[in-house]
């Protein structure tokens, strides 16, 4: 006889479940007797009542971003829930989050020691790391410098302003022809399937100095497993907060570990090749740059910490992993909005024809001349909020926020979805409307409004790849809109309901494309 405890886990015997629950009840009672003492002048955090063992887990449901947004309406922008017996502080509201992550940045810059994090890059991940501040800051600085240097590196030909623009342009043009050929052969295509490989190839070019075929089995299988990865590390994974659940059989967790092992094996094979062919006088890509640092054994002057080879490898893994999932999700959502709002799709195309035409490939420098496209991308970021939460934060010391006491080592969720849908900040937040970001004269984006949208985090943990990410989304989308018209299949409309995860994906669907005037002829698919 068996029972099921939460949808996340497989069947266990009743005796196993009872023993586990009795043990946890005893631990829970002991924990309740050791409550944190609130310093004078500060208030206790508000929040919903929690159940023994599972805390508020059942209240989170399948869409924690919506559940926690509803709770913020009851308890305010700073409140506490329990996942298992572990307290979690939830922050929402633009001003509150900016206070925490910018003005009190050092106090909220930590990462919680969550169970699933140890499997990401063999525990050496930069983004998910619980490293001490000195080591973490040094690794972050290394990654930032590597990204900056290779993003601004000159392209192989003078038509490109930099290597980043060259990588994106070539992959964008290849993607156009790929989608046309698949449509001609099969009648339709899954946009995410093809977008994710093109985006992965951009970061492969920067990190590894190579690209892969869209039919490369290993790469295609890896990049299409990002959904499963995101579902485990998203805010609210039960096993991260309820220790005894780690002992129970879980197909989801088993698959998550397998994904990480396959991913690490793929990247480490490339890294071994780089070590074997490394030439200090010929730094070819980001990986060579980081190997060069390892060889020199440079020390951080401020913290006097030395970064190990394993942690350097972890940086490469992070750059590659984050470099395709976030951007491909943003691009695939953008295509879905083009299909769902054909009038906006046509308005974007007309802007493109007026400012660029058909005589050349769009460039990164065109951004200031395409304000409506800039507004469209910003509204996609806001309306989809495909990154509903940042990676969980953690307090590095006892602190307070909005008059509430928050102890050291408290896990903190940042609800970006709530900020992007706050009715106090946005008029008709549920409506998709790029015009909300246009200036009054309609000639540029209203930067003050655009900066209210939260997608890449804030403060010391803000995404280091934000510039590259924004550049990729803009240039890929510009090339696609210039050359293709996207449509759904006759009688069908795309399902815009997001699927919860670290990055929220749309439901898979099939689309078609038709070439725009001036681009009817097929081009060569080869990349040089």
TrEMBL record:
Heme binds at residue 463. The keyword Transcription does not apply. Its cofactor is heme. One of its GO terms (cellular component) is endoplasmic reticulum membrane. The keyword Membrane applies. It catalyses: an organic molecule + reduced [NADPH--hemoprotein reductase] + O2 = an alcohol + oxidized [NADPH--hemoprotein reductase] + H2O + H(+). One of its GO terms (biological process) is progesterone metabolic process. It is found in: Endoplasmic reticulum membrane; Microsome membrane. Keywords: Endoplasmic reticulum, Heme, Iron, Membrane, Metal-binding, Microsome, Monooxygenase, Oxidoreductase. Pfam families: p450. One of its GO terms (molecular function) is heme binding. Its EC number is 1.14.14.1. It is a peripheral membrane protein. Belongs to the cytochrome P450 family. Cytochromes P450 are a group of heme-thiolate monooxygenases. They oxidize a variety of structurally unrelated compounds, including steroids, fatty acids, and xenobiotics. This is Cytochrome P450 1A.
